[in-house]
Amino acid sequence: MAYVAVTGGQEAIEEANGLAHFYRVKDTTPSLDIESIEKQLRLLVDRVMGEGGMYAPEYAALALKQAEGDPAEAAFLLRAYRSTLPRNHYSLTVQPVDMRVIRRISSSFRDIPGGQMLGPTYDYTHRMLNFSLRQESNEDMIAFAKEYTDAAELADGSLTFKKVADLLREQGLMAKAAKGKSEEQEPFDITRQKMTIPTTRAARLQALTRGETGAMTALAYSSMRGYGVVHPTIGELRVGYAPVYIPYPYSSEGGDDCLYIGELMLTEVETINSFKQDAESGNVQFLLGYGLCFGQNELKGISMAILERSLETEGTAPAQDEEFVLTHIDSVESSGFVSHLKLPHYITFQSSLDQIRKVQVQKAQLKPEEDERDANNRAEAEQPQENIQHSRV
Amino acid sequence: MKKSQITRALIEGDGILLRRLCEQIEESYEVSILKAPEKSLVMTKANDSVSQQPFYMGEVLVTECTISINSVYGFGVLMGEEAERAYQLAVVDGAFQAKLPETEAWYTELLMEEQKVDEKHRREYSRAMKSKVNFDTMEEYNAKR
Asked: Domain of life, per the record (chain B) (predicted)?
């Protein structure tokens, strides 16, 4: 297949851009306020940040406004913008165990230390359109938020919870870190190094955490429906705010100063899949799947944990194929590749056209001979038919 | 107080405190901007609880600024597009780095601000805890009836 660069169409493209702008603004006021998108469409904003690979709620909201709500286009805008900025720092390792939790559930263990809290979720609501939202006013929103906040009491005790995985580990129900790996290893970075298959666990997790929610859900679903071996229960799903720190750049030698830069909202999922006997100890231990992503995106967190675990198993199902999964879940790559089909492919098409025309010319040259042969065949075929008709008469 | 503690109180706390501390220094010292506030990225590393090894989760947009006071560097950084606050954080950091006498009185205020932040978090947490749940199995449910 051959491609060629094309030029021209400048005026038409400008007009097309103008039309896109026109269709975004026609018949509607007021202009969508970025803060409203950021706060009131927060789950979509979270999704776009995850797929764009950059945590910046305000910019994700701006990207959504610009893209007229298309998550793939918004993630592309965010990813493109991200590539214009210098990366000046690396964080200290974020520990989701330090999360200020606002939601924490387990579908495997009913009684987890600290308890389960449903938090902000639509899991237990009837899926019915709420027509009263059409009349929701600014005053209603402010009044509800104020009343809700004012009614909050001052909670005692720790705001963080021990993780279910750590509890399982303490009880010998889950493998401890491999010997010699207790020190932190420098992770592979798929944004700086080319990922080759088979890849490292760190690269796999990085690719999954910025994967497209829908694609990951489809692949995880395929695994549970029978095209794979992973169909877990949720050991723990938590949503909350995790603090992020970076080393202080002007720290004196040997100093361990660090700076707090803010909090990330994260979704973390640990799934329990099956168990296996540990070769060394002989203990039977649970096998966990792991998911962690930006914002509150539970579907993605669970799908990530399923796919992560699925890629640790051997088999022929698509969800067990590392290359298949990791190279098809990236929103920018997949939507970009499918979208590029809309752009000019004239040379490719021209070569196909040339071939068709060549065949047509050859066929045209053979046509007189074929016509004569066809006429003879028809005459032979019709002869017995006439006889039959005569006999009937 | 550690830097991590100070910066947390200043970033999560009321912006008025940060502005006031910054202005206090600006009134008495010459602040040179070495690197004006600019946007950059922090790559976040997170702990994978299964392997207990880190992986890169994605980048975070931050604004950072470097200043100097009496030839001593001050650095400010926080999440988001926040040019003014990045500068103010840098000035406050410069004051601590230069061990300016004004900073001595700041610790009490910072501890109070830290407490306010903690209270805010505790209120948010208590609302979440209202949705704490104890699911009964159907057997238990039927036994209670």
From this structure: Bacteria
Give residues 49 to 68 of B whose Cβ lies within 8 Å of A.
49-62, 64
Sign of CA dihedral B123, B126, B128, B131: negative
Q: What is the pLDDT of residues B83-117, one digit of tens each?
A: 999 999 999 999 999 999 999 999 999 999 999 99
Average pLDDT, chain A: 90
Task: Inform me whether the C-beta atom of residue B36 falls under 8 Å from chain A C-beta atoms.
Answer: no
Interface confidence, given as ipTM, is: 0.95
In this complex, do B132 and A289 lie within 8 Å of one another by their Cβ atoms? Answer: no
Confirm whether A190 is domain-assigned: yes
The answer to whether position A280 is within a domain reads: yes
Say what angle helices B15-28 and B106-129 make with each other, to 10 degrees: 170
In a domain, A89, yes or no: no
| Contacts with B51 from chain A: Cβ below 8 Å | 177-178, 181, 201
In a domain, A340, yes or no: no
Give the Cα separation of B61 and A388 in Å (integer): 88
Query: Of A183, A305, A92, A236, which is closest to residue B53 (Cα–Cα)?
Result: A183
Digit-coded pLDDT (tens) for A265-309: 999 999 998 777 777 777 778 889 999 999 999 999 999 999 999
| Claim to verify: residue A146 and residue A77 sit in the same structural domain | no
Residues of A in contact with B7 (CB under 8 A): 259-261
Dist. CA A267–CA A242, nearest whole Å: 10
| pLDDT per residue as tens digits for the range A48-62 | 999 999 999 999 999
Which residue range(s) make up the domain with A191?
96-123+139-177+186-331
